[in-house]
């Protein structure tokens, strides 16, 4: 039947795509920085052009292994993690209560998440992370709103040990200003989303302003969680494939893309309410629009977008230099894809 034939074709494509990823991941064992940089560039290209296989099942480790390579997480230590876990609850005043208040409601309605990630695992991971931060004061990282959701996505995709090291690398190296007490990265991200909206869709931007919908009123939660506050979870992880391939800063483009996708509905609404009616994530459409947006971003604005998760606007100070083989490139570098 036609349906069976299409299913067979799709299955064969997934097999071939999985083989491409396995080939690249096996090369990731090379120690040469040049080899690693080329391998990551190839992974970026593959993530953007073809995505990951759609037949990913529970227990499949492919996405987690791809994320580890893209985040440059090469060494993990079960012994060091156990030491942190054995320290128990964080002793920072009030933080443990905040963690417990957030963890019980994390992806509460998602059955797949609830089956895969026990609440105690998330609590354990967040407490261990706080102990890790106590040992390294360079970033001033602490538990902030939205951190539970970000950490939970890592636990949903990979085993607990890998999730801890990938989450820690992400929070302390790639986006430390999102996880300091002032959540400056998120606030700067909102301002940058405002600037991107002016460039990408000035009509929509002016319409929202005329309706009293300033970007800060609807964008902060989406910046804080790197779009993980909007379901469905299986689309969040696909969007994060893109974020880890090109850097957490591209979430700003994805955020604006989500609004542009429903621009006609917004323009037609007498009183648009984006704080409640944010559309469900459609990762493929969001990424397609984001790549189109980035082509029109001026270089000076792009530089601010790239740097905002880890560099203060009013200081030359950088927190924990990014991995030396990390190079921020525009997704549109792989031109003509969409």
From TrEMBL:
Full protein name: Bub2 protein
Record-linked Pfam families: RabGAP-TBC
Domain annotation Rab-GAP TBC: ranges: 57-247
Gene3D superfamilies the record matches: putative rabgap domain of human tbc1 domain family member 14 like domains, Ypt/Rab-GAP domain of gyp1p, domain 3
Protein family according to the UniProt entry: Belongs to the BUB2 family.
Main location: cytoplasm
Record key words, sorted: Cell cycle, Cytoplasm, Cytoskeleton
Top-level taxonomy: Eukaryota, Amoebozoa, Evosea, Variosea, Cavosteliida
Localization: Cytoplasm, Cytoskeleton
GO molecular function: GTPase activator activity
């Amino acid at each position: 039947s036609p349906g069976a034939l299409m299913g067979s074709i799709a299955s064969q494509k997934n097999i071939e795509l999985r083989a491409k990823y396995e080939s690249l991941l096996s090369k990731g064992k090379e120690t040469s920085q040049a080899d690693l940089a080329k391998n990551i560039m190839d992974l970026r290209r593959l993530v953007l052009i073809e995505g990951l296989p759609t037949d990913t099942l529970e227990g499949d480790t492919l996405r987690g292994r791809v994320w580890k390579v893209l985040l440059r997480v090469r060494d993990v230590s079960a012994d060091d993690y156990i030491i942190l876990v054995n320290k128990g609850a964080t002793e920072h005043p009030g933080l443990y209560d905040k963690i417990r208040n957030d963890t019980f409601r994390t992806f509460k309605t998602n059955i797949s998440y609830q089956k895969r990630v026990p609440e105690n695992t998330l609590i354990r991971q967040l407490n261990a992370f706080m102990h890790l931060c106590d040992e390294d004061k360079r970033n001033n990282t602490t538990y902030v709103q939205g951190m539970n959701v970000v950490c939970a996505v890592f636990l949903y995709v990979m085993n607990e040990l890998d999730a801890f090291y990938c989450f820690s690398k992400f929070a302390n190296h790639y986006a430390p200003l999102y996880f300091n007490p002032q959540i400056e990265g998120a606030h700067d991200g909102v301002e940058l989303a405002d600037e991107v909206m002016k460039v990408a869709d000035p009509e929509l931007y002016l319409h929202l302003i005329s309706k009293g919908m300033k970007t800060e009123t609807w964008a902060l939660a989406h910046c804080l969680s790197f779009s993980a506050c909007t379901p469905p979870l299986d689309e969040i992880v696909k969007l994060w494939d893109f974020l880890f391939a090109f850097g957490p800063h591209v979430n700003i483009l994805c955020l604006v893309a989500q609004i542009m996708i429903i621009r006609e509905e917004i323009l037609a609404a007498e009183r648009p309410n984006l704080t409640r009616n944010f559309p469900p994530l459609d990762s493929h459409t969001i990424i397609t629009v984001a790549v189109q947006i980035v082509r029109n971003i001026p270089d000076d604005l792009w530089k601010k977008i790239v740097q905002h998760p880890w560099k203060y606007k009013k200081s030359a100070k950088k927190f924990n230099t990014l991995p030396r083989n990390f190079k921020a490139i525009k997704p549109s570098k792989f031109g003509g894809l969409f």
